[in-house]
Amino acid sequence: xxxxxxxxxxxxxxxxxxxxxxxxxxxxxxxxxxxxxxxxxxxxxxxxxxxxxxxxxxxxx
Amino acid sequence: xxxxxxxxxxxxxxxxxxxxxxxxxxxxxxxxxxxxxxxxxxxxxxxxxxxxxxxxxxxxx
Amino acid sequence: xxxxxxxxxxxxxxxxxxxxxxxxxxxxxxxxxxxxxxxxxxxxxxxxxxxxxxxxxxxxx
Amino acid sequence: xxxxxxxxxxxxxxxxxxxxxxxxxxxxxxxxxxxxxxxxxxxxxxxxxxxxxxxxxxxxx
Amino acid sequence: xxxxxxxxxxxxxxxxxxxxxxxxxxxxxxxxxxxxxxxxxxxxxxxxxxxxxxxxxxxxx
Amino acid sequence: xxxxxxxxxxxxxxxxxxxxxxxxxxxxxxxxxxxxxxxxxxxxxxxxxxxxxxxxxxxxx
Lengths: 61, 61, 61, 61, 61, 61
What we know:
Six copies of one chain form a homohexamer. In chain A, 31% of the residues lie in helices and 31% in strands. By secondary structure, chain A is of the alpha+beta class. The longest helix of chain A is centred in the middle third of the chain and has 19 residues, at 14-32. Chains A, B, C, D, E, F: InterPro entries: 4-OT, 4-OT-like_dom, Tautomerase/MIF_sf.
């Protein structure tokens, strides 16, 4: 622990995930005072048919 | 906020998700008294090998 | 299944949850064509120190 | 209820999930004293680009 | 990894959680072939007003 | 979106959450190229009886 889950609509590159994992882990380790290797980061890409805001799917926007 | 996550075994159509997003957002906005555009709905389709009830995968039922 | 998780900042009453459970279950059962007793709804109340938007905790808004 | 979610990096077989569903359901039913058919188990396979430990994606290890 | 989340309506004892953590970790480690110290188990107790089945809160059953 | 969930064993201060929300939002907004006000961060504090590693509750370590 800590465990960080990041949900985004699909379309981010592996390079963006790589950088997010690095930056977020640094911030969490530093602020919560734990070694970086105890920080876990998970990504969850959502399809455009799988996220809605205001009652409308992103697919339809 | 509010944030609504809906998990289902795969097989629902985009049209069903579209309607779910609409109906669920209306209900949540009305009952919790927030504008609809602050309601977020997420869908998560599970494969039949990824959900079990009573110790048996849906795949095997 | 289906399983519906609803996350909100704390402050909703039991009566609001009761009505949400009813309305959301009806919508999900009707649209996905499953009996209502197979629909599960979960609520998660977040404290104002536990949700941030735009980098600012709700507590500080 | 209870509801058990199991997240793993992809690569487990259906046979492993089948056995996990069975063993975990037995343990949960027995220890929490509920009938097995009220225990629900969900699997979530993560791609190697979707999990990082120590700031590094599994993909890059 | 693996990561196991167990959601239950409140009322389980610490001793039951202790035993669940042990039994579930053993099953997951053995079946997925990972060392036990890489298995993480999380519990989430739900209040009776926070879980509904068939459109009715457990509180009202 | 994006949505970031951070799970930690209890004991972090509001000030640490405030700083985490700020730093993580900055990183996510910058790397994924979205305005900060579309980034949502959630914290989930786990009790020491609610997290186990290697089959042992943190409470017992």
